[in-house]
Amino acid sequence: TLNNALLDELEKTPNVKLFFNHKLTGADFHSRKAWFERRIPEDEHKTDHPHPDEAAVDFDRAPEVEVSFDFLIGADGAHSASRYHMMKYSRVDYQQEYIDTLWCEFRIEPTVEGDFKISPNHLHIWPGTEFMFIALPSPDKSFTCTLFAPADHYARLGNTPEALCASFQQYFPGVSPELISPEDLYRQFTTNQHLPLISIKCKPHHYNSSVVIIGDAAHAVLPFYGQGLNAGMEDVRVLFEILDSHGVYDASHDAASRDVARNEAFETYTKTRVADAHAINELSKGNFIEMRAGVNSRMYKFRKFIEENLDRYMPQLGWQTQYSRVSFSNMRYSEIMRAVERQRLLLTTTFGTAAFAAAVVGLAIAGRVIFKHPVHFNLHRAVEYFR
After folding, report:
1. What tens digit of pLDDT does each residue of 28-39 get?
2. For the chain, which residues make up each domain, given as ranges?
């Protein structure tokens, strides 16, 4: 996995130390000190206490470890402790949103011969306007599937294997029993968790030269563009490009100068990255609507047909689909939104003009016919008819 690959590379770096099972419990971004509680996995669930009235006291809690730092990079996820402690020092605008959708994971097993049951070269979507079921291929030739639906929809799906299978046949035809047996479908539905989806925006992403947050700690996004991890990795690239451009690691500068440079670099990072973080947040929300509802629209299919053919056959025009810009380029998310809006406006204007021209031509032809054959057209009679 990617986690293991990164850990393998880190272990090869002589100036990196890894500490597992440590929880950030406090941070002072003025004195630049942080406190960590060492979590011992086998002791995490201890609940025995010598006296009932002492149950609120955690006798098993390990002592905190104090650590001094030059600066802290918080990459600790949507429920970030780094962000929580940073907000005590910085005026952070913070927005957290749970959308009215839960997700549950399913698995399509490989065939008896050990092959894929359906095409591995496609993203499979069963859209349902307010909900959807998707399937993505895995290296072991299974498919990882996810049901995204409002909470009340889960309650309507059925309480028995037969009822659940009937619901899937109604909303997601071809999934069960064709790809997942009713019994296995029911087992996965009742065993796997039904989890919420969180969206987070905040700014700034730093405080002075002491701390900067990246990844989900700064911008948790919905999973519908598959850009959560990519955006986090892009944070790392952009952050260190900016640190390098400000000379933060220039050994010829003294510590005070490097601290000033780091503060300026963090400010630049926030100004650069907040706009892009907010943009991918909006793009992910918009793509959810397209995936579950837009793909059923004839107008959507027609627009996608035009856009994809312009992208494929006329690249010299600079035309690219939104998906290709997001997934296969280093173009900033905020710039992608502006470019796509320009393209959408151009398409709308072009088709609007074409429709208007067609209407004018149609009226001209009709007028010519009426002028040449007036006996067939009585305006007074037509007016009387529509009264």
Report:
1. 999 999 999 998
2. 17-69, 96-196, 302-387
